[in-house]
Write a structure and sequence with these properties.
The chain is of the alpha+beta class. The protein folds into 3 domains: 12-267 and 324-398, no CATH class; 272-320, no CATH class; 407-475, OB fold (Dihydrolipoamide Acetyltransferase, E2P). It contains 13 helices and 18 strands. The protein has helices at 12-22, 34-42, 89-92, 98-106, 122-128, 169-177, 186-205, 235-257, 272-284, 296-305, 313-320, 351-366, 376-405, and strands at residues 49-50, 57-60, 69-75, 79-87, 110-112, 115-117, 136-147, 150-162, 165-168, 216-220, 226-230, 264-266, 325-327, 410-419, 422-427, 433-437, 453-462, 467-475. The protein has a 5-stranded mixed sheet. Strands 16-15-14-17-18 form a 5-stranded antiparallel sheet. The chain has a two-stranded parallel sheet with strand order 2-9. β7 (136-147) and β8 form a beta hairpin. α1 (12-22) packs antiparallel against α13 and α9 packs antiparallel against α11. The longest helix has 30 residues, at 376-405.
Length: 477
């Protein structure tokens, strides 16, 4: 799946630059920030508890440079003690100073296949606030005790830590699965996984919905060549996800119980119209058993009935879900099965999390009530949607670029939409979808159904829009 760029052709870098420009992404920081940054870098950590004896580790992707979170756990048979350390960005960035105002405008960092446009300058995001190994760093620690699959106690610390290792997801999976006892981090990793097993049971008990769908990433090789690679489903990734979820839930519960008008991460129940369409599909595929889908358990039951031959239903279940959003009033997270939820664990790359840090610190340590900023949640939700849209468009156009420069014209896919004007097909081996129009494919004369496996030919491919048209659609029995 290698792409070789041809002369006078649009390449991946052109695609990325176009998206940055069209979406008016703020790329640079003004020179006037230099004296402010110098002051921030020189700021000494004070009034933070000494937790430098705890061997925290960070677990991230191989290309990560901004380390928001570090984890530690000890596990006994019936109980676990967890510490989740999050970079204390609020200690260095004062509210309403120029760095803070700029970060708020950006809303979040923007990630591209070839670069990151950070929310803060790299001196902050990759250095002074990043939990890099073997360096003393300021953090907010959420300490949680679990007994018999329930949170029995929690505490918040403003602390100094030293990360003992920068680990990747692949390394952690390898150490644990291959029982590499000689590795210096083996004991901690074992404790993390044992604690993770408890967190999984807690998630299962509240009927957390776990969707599984293929995700692709663009890997750039020498020059501007790139490959489209399917992401591995590593267990260590799910481990970190569960640790972050319990930290976010714990903080959200504290904010709500103390009537703090902070920023919450809400996920509503699916809309009735989407539920009606989903029921029709499930009835057609003989896996519907009168579920009403007003609880998480109904979705979990359907997911448990899905087999390899009808795995396409997973995508339809995912599409039925509402979009998560930020709001100053908590209404819980349906998909996670939680009554309280916020974003707290990524203050280097999300302004929502930084805002939550300030609200938490002001109340927990100083007993001050926060002041809610009007329209902030709407702005942050908008910026997040912009980031997701850019990522989706780049992937669509990268696929178009691959198809244009490859000699392959015939593919296999799954029908995932049927309209009067044509059928939509999702490719199986690559992350693209295409449309076979009615005038090119006699849709009404063929009994097409959602989820059918088909072969198809690429008829037209527009790299500039990422839109692909198909024809010669044939059902594969």
């Amino acid at each position: 799946m290698k792409i070789k760029n041809r002369k006078n052709n649009l390449n991946l870098k052109d695609i990325i630059e176009k998206e940055i420009k069209e979406n008016s992404i703020r790329q640079y920081f003004p020179n006037s920030f230099k004296p402010i940054l110098e002051k921030v870098v020189k700021k000494k950590i004070s009034d933070h508890k000494d937790f430098t004896d705890i061997p925290f580790v960070t677990i991230d992707g191989i290309d990560s440079k901004d380390f928001d979170d570090a984890v530690w756990a000890e596990d006994n048979k019936d109980s676990s003690r967890i510490m989740i350390a999050i970079a204390d960005v609020s200690y260095f960035i004062e509210k309403n100073d120029p760095l803070d105002v700029e970060a708020k405008k950006r809303g979040n960092s923007f990630y591209f296949p070839d670069r990151v446009i950070p929310m803060f300058p790299e001196e902050i995001s990759n250095n002074i606030c990043s939990l890099v190994p073997n360096q003393e760093r300021a953090s907010i620690i959420v300490e949680i005790e679990i007994k018999h699959f329930k949170v029995t106690k929690f505490d918040i610390h403003r602390a100094r830590i030293i990360s003992s290792a920068r680990l990747t997801y692949e390394e952690v999976d390898n150490i644990y699965k291959n029982n590499l006892r000689q590795d210096k981090n083996f004991k901690l990793i074992t404790n993390l996984f044992r604690t993770y097993e408890k967190l999984k049971i807690m998630s299962k008990n509240r009927s957390k919905i776990n969707f599984s769908s293929d995700e692709f990433q663009i890997i750039i090789n020498a020059g501007n060549d790139f490959i489209l690679k399917k992401k591995k489903r590593l267990e260590s990734y799910k481990l970190i996800e569960e640790f972050m979820i319990i930290a976010n839930e714990t903080v959200a519960k504290y904010l709500k119980n103390n009537n703090l008008n902070s920023i919450y991460r809400n996920h509503e129940k699916p809309k009735l119209e989407k539920i009606k369409d989903l029921k029709k599909l499930l009835i057609k595929n003989n896996i519907y058993k009168n579920e009403k889908f007003n609880t998480q358990k109904d979705f979990v039951n359907i997911l448990n009935r899905i087999k390899k031959y009808n795995s396409f239903i997973n995508d339809f279940l995912l599409r039925t879900q509402s979009k998560a959003n930020y709001n100053n009033k908590n209404s819980g997270h349906f998909g996670l099965g939680l009554d309280y939820y916020t974003h707290f664990t990524s203050p280097i790359r999300r302004y929502s999390d930084l805002n939550v840090h300030r609200d938490l610190i002001n109340h927990f340590f100083q007993k001050k009530k926060n002041n809610y900023e009007n329209n902030l949640t709407e702005h942050l939700t908008f910026q997040e949607k912009k980031s997701e849209s850019i990522e989706r468009k780049i992937m669509e156009r990268a696929c178009s670029l691959y198809l244009k420069n490859s000699k392959k014209r015939f593919f296999m896919g799954i029908i995932d939409g049927i309209e009067s004007f044509g059928i939509f097909i999702k490719a199986i081996d690559l992350p693209f979808s295409c449309l076979a129009r009615s005038r090119n494919q006699i849709v009404n004369k063929i009994n097409y159904e959602l989820g059918q496996k088909v072969s198809f030919r690429i008829r037209r491919n527009d790299i500039f829009s990422g839109k692909i048209l198909a024809d010669n659609v044939k059902i594969i029995n």
